[in-house]
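Try this one yourself first.
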């Protein structure tokens, strides 16, 4: 895998949905492939742009009208059971509930009530969400939860807008299942990956 630091100019960085679309330009020839990168906005400055940390299976390439690759390095997930690691994760903790106001849907001859995702806004709910995601993979030793402003986005082509609630998790964990945790690091944790969530960064504690 590759870890890269990317700069995205303000016109593309101010809308989270457009920011994600802009990152695709770093992978010419792979526009129709499944997304094979995760990212996290590390700094966003009005009028200047965004500095982004990106993890990808393909080496990013700066081309015309693409973001700028400030630097990159190859990265191998190399962790062991029992190892203590510092971590950082921006996530979108949610729960899925049935909502009869959304109507029903037919699947395999059965009728189901449509569901909606709702954010978990209380700290104890957010911690429980993370513990479930890491269950059997790692044990949380310490955790700091930082609330973040609501993230608003626009999908111009679809003529609609939306919002998500993100939080930043920082802490220390002890690895229980190194192989399974490595897989989670590669694929990302939780929803809203297109909006900069899910990238689990680790370092030796």
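Now uncover the answer:
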């Amino acid at each position: 895998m590759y870890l890269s630091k990317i700069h995205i100019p303000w016109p593309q960085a101010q809308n989270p949905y457009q920011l994600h679309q802009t990152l695709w330009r770093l992978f010419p020839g792979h526009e129709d492939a499944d997304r094979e990168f995760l990212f996290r906005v590390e700094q966003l400055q009005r009028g200047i742009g965004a500095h982004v940390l990106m993890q990808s299976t393909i080496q990013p390439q700066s081309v015309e009208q693409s973001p700028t690759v400030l630097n990159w390095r190859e990265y191998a997930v190399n962790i062991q059971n029992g190892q203590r690691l510092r971590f950082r994760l921006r996530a979108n903790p949610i729960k899925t509930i049935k909502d009869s106001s959304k109507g029903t849907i037919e699947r395999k001859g059965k009728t189901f009530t449509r569901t909606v995702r709702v954010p978990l806004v209380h700290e104890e709910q957010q911690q429980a969400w993370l513990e479930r995601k890491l269950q059997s993979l790692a044990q949380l030793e310490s955790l700091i939860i930082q609330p973040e402003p609501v993230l608003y986005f626009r999908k111009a082509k679809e003529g609609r807008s939306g919002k998500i609630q993100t939080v930043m998790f920082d802490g220390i964990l002890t690895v229980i299942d190194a192989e399974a945790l490595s897989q989670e690091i590669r694929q990302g944790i939780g929803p809203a990956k297109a909006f900069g969530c899910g990238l689990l960064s680790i370092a030796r504690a």
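Discussion: The radius of gyration is 18 Å. The chain has four helices and 14 strands.
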